Here is the input.
Amino acid sequence: MSAALEVRDLRMRFGAQAAIDGISFRLEPGRIHGLLGRNGAGKTTLLSLVASLRRPTSGSIRIDGVDPFGIAAAAAKVCLVPSGPELSGGLRVRAALKAAAALRPNWDAALAERLVGRFALPMKKTIASLSRGQRSAVGIVIGLASRAELTMFDEAYLGLDAPSRYAFYEELLQDYMAHPRTIVLSTHLIEEVGDLFEDVLILKDGRVLLQENAEQLRSRGAALVGPADKVDAVVAGLNVVGSRSLGPTKSVTVYGNAIDGLHRRAGEAGLQVAPVPLQDLFVHLTEPGAAS
Amino acid sequence: MTKSSHQPAVNRFVAIGLFRFVIWYAAVYPVVVAGITIGLRFVNEGGDENLWRNLTIAPVYYLVACGVVAVATLLPMIVAHGGTRRAFSRAAAPMFAGLSVITGLYVLALIGFDALVSSIFGWEPTVSGVVELASVGDRVELFLDTMLAGLCALATGWLAGIVWQSAVFRRRLGWIPATLLMVPCAIPIVAAEIVLHRPPFGADFADALDLDLGVAGGAIAALAIGAASLALAAYLTRDVIVGGRASPA
Amino acid sequence: MVLYMTEEPANTAATGARPLFDDKTPIYQQIADQIKDDILSGTLKEEDQVMSTNQYAAFYRINPATAAKAFQQLEAEGVLVKRRGIGMFVATGARETLRDARRARFFEERVDPLAREAEMLGIPVDALVERLRARGGQS
Here is the structure.
């Protein structure tokens, strides 16, 4: 039970400003997708549109080919765990979970109960009175136990300490493997979350910068360190997206399809080629003014 | 119009939410009013300052709050949990109609309660100071009036909730302009009170406007106002923005 | 590293920090290499069942597709065989195949860099040979 998401020419304007500036993409069902982008790239706006919290200015959103805004069968497949203020801040944790249980057709009460225990959530406190991390945990519990066919986490771990974040990643993976579904993780913690992605969608200034298999994206990047003249000779003609110098030593990051030849040339020049972590690739590719 | 298995869950959710909001008021209101009235009687030695006068009015106005709460709390949760706005409207409209019928019956019950309390203390029942209740026909008329006014009050609340959501989330207005925008939402309840000649001001306004539709005409007019307002509210609900942040941030 | 435990790996991963991968090679490559190492060292015997991709994914906290990629590679190389509905097993003769392959690359990948390093440090080849002889006598 996994839903495909298809977005066509989507636009969302706030006054003169376009938060989403005409984007089209498709998320394959049954995969974990990383949604990446710098602050203001449009991630949260995109997710709130997919979750039918508001109408887009123009364009279309389809869940398995159906518009979720008006059609209940499609709407029921979508679950967004927002990073912003909770819609139900005045509710007690118990009431918030009860509401989700009442409205979510695939709700797994046993899972919810286990997660509440694991994150040590106080059931009788109101959500507004919880710490940031505890509020995030409530969202995580609801997001996982809802078992929605398209589940989207928008910075779901804000305020959580490292052990709790790891607990989230583990629970997410386990539940995803036991009940495969389409998952979107919008995140800034690429280093920590990146290994969970199968596909990656990067937004920049309200547009799609790239969408690719995570492993393939990693394989397009390479880093070289060595004497500046040798490095320059080896990377000549390649798409250099980042470069730093320390005295006579130069470190460059290249990105593109011609990486295979690079390994051979680097070997001949006695240089080591290293893969570039996803986070570094992201930083270079979303640099203001960087060409994709 | 796609039928969805989600509708029953939304219906239940709205019903439980409304019930929770209404039940404590229904239970507490007569007790508090009776307590205060009895207390005042003993302090004032038979003075007629009593809150029973509002007996037919306050429950109707409470329904305005009820409508607002339905939109402000139930609708966002339904949408956040995969329900549609249409599902909410489909649940809310018939339940509001049912709730107004219950309110009509509730007011009749309150009058009985008033009579009971008054007879225990040997007082004249005090509601009769506000409405004539000489015959069964009077009671039916009071029930109809209350029910129709209640329907329009719920419509006013629903509209006000939608306007508030739109003002705050779409136009990003502060709460003062948002509140001012909600004032026109009072039109359904005010209009209903005028055509029904309901207290506290309806009769005076009707006189000032030289408007008298008669009992049946007034009831039909009020029903039309209520139905039209609910339809308008449901229409405005179709695209309403639900919670969340208004801007990309 | 003991990967072939009988208990659910997720339980082990629950509290401990994730075993770290290095940044030099893709994760699936590292998983494949680890499995090969375990076959070579005898930790994993021929005909043994290998943990499932899901167990690997849970243990390392990685996407199951990444783990599956390692298995696909090993299957393509003939190191693992899939038995439908049961799981992945170490292929018969896998150890021999792996040894041959590693041996073929051994001098190029291990000895040559060692020799280069020794030369850079001014360590004579005789000293290297002596050391290796001494170790060989030990073990």
Remarks:
- Chain A touches chain B at residues 12, 14, 17, 19, 39-40, 42, 44-45, 48, 51-55, 69-73, 75-80, 82, 84-85, 87-88, 90, 99-100, 102-105, 146, 148, 206 (CB under 8 Å).
- Chain A has two domains: 5-205, 217-285.
- The CA atoms of residues 136 and 157 of chain A lie 6 Å apart.
